[in-house]
């Protein structure tokens, strides 16, 4: 924004389409629309059909719907124009080239419209991140979480906590600066510290204790398919994906690297990883594949252990612990009965060849995803950046609670507030001064 330019860009996807949307934002957006159409600006937020012509040589570019959003009532807070064009590449290119020839217009940088919306106070950083997540959402649950965050619920929660911190800090600052002169200014500051800090820290700690639910939903639940060679791991991946993703062969060691597929189960995103067969020996490449398989097993949220019902391997040969996050699938029950228990876990009978047991596997996966990613009535943390700042806030609150003296407590409260402010992008020391003068009537 420092160059004062009006920016423009294709806001819809590239390639042939029925409609393409070009967006402009900045002080000359209205003038640019007038030059393209040769007409006065339309009424705000009312679509008008207009012929677009190149302002240099007056060559006809397209007949388009035009929309005019004068600031600050726009996405960015600036004057904004939208051009709804026919979606052919030649039309889009012609309009973008024509805009580039207008003085003080330039092509937008990646994310620049959203950046301007943030800088002008239309969206905080959590809402901006929610918008990015909404664009990237693959499943219904990801869409719901992104919309919730974009609507400002997460930012409102953090700003509410920050407001409480600022009021507490204002009380302490007032005691430091004016306690002796204004005897009633700092009354109760110590009691407020003793009560409010533990209460606020407990709320933030409860928010953090979410088992990374929001981050998992955003990125996808990691599910590793493991087992010895020729147990049916790759066949299971193909069956769940409903397409031929992995090569299936009777030759042991066919899968040597980790192969990933994304699934949408009841709106929950899962990332299935087919891995190399777990066995000793093999060449150098297969040994590396086994190492990667065991590493993926350790990092996965859920493991699908596929064994041959007729010849289950020794549990100790697998190289990882079978626990409650491991679903044991005894495959090939069309050839032999499945053991009831393996590695301390009840088995699920499966015949991928005949399609038996697959519905139960999908049901188990859906249940596991719902338990780990299921929606909460409260907004959830969606990024590691948020989590790190919240942890820094709690640490600062702990220091403030244990501080000996108002000066030290005030500094740690200030750091705690700044940690929360970094999440939303709204860190301003003037907030503290405003609260001091408004709530304590200092300077009368």
Word description of this protein:
The protein is α/β, with parallel strands linked by helices and 444 residues long. The protein folds into 3 domains: 6-117, Probable tRNA modification gtpase trme, domain 1 (Gyrase A, domain 2), CATH 3.30.1360; 153-210 and 383-440, Four Helix Bundle (Hemerythrin (Met), subunit A), CATH 1.20.120; 217-373, P-loop containing nucleotide triphosphate hydrolases (Rossmann fold), CATH 3.40.50.300. Helices cover 44% and strands 18% of the residues. It has 14 helices and 13 strands. A 7-stranded mixed beta sheet has the order 8-9-7-10-11-13-12, with helices on both faces. A hairpin with a 2-residue loop joins strand 8 and strand 9. Helix 6 (153-178) packs antiparallel against helix 13 and helix 7 (189-208) packs antiparallel against helix 12. The protein is flat. It starts with 5 loop residues before the first strand and ends with a helix. Residues 435-444 have low confidence and may be disordered.
Features:
single chain; 444 residues; Gyrase A, domain 2; Four Helix Bundle (Hemerythrin (Met), subunit A); 6-stranded mixed β-sheet; flat; disordered C terminus
Shape, per Cα inertia axes: flat
Helical content, roughly? Answer: 40-55%
The CATH topology of the largest domain is given as Rossmann fold
Distance from first to last alpha carbon: 40 Å
Detail the topology: elements first, then pairings.
Layout lengths: L5 E5 L6 E9 L3 H9 L10 E6 L6 E10 L10 E8 L1 H12 L4 E3 L4 H8 L5 H12 L3 H11 L2 H26 L10 H20 L4 H7 L1 E6 L6 H9 L17 E7 L2 E7 L9 H16 L2 E7 L17 E6 L9 E2 L2 E5 L8 H16 L10 H19 L3 H19 L5 H11 L4
Parallel strand pairs: 1-6, 7-9, 7-10, 10-11, 11-13
Antiparallel strand pairs: 1-2, 2-5, 3-4, 4-5, 8-9, 12-13
Helix pairs in contact: 4-5, 6-7, 6-13, 6-14, 7-12, 12-13
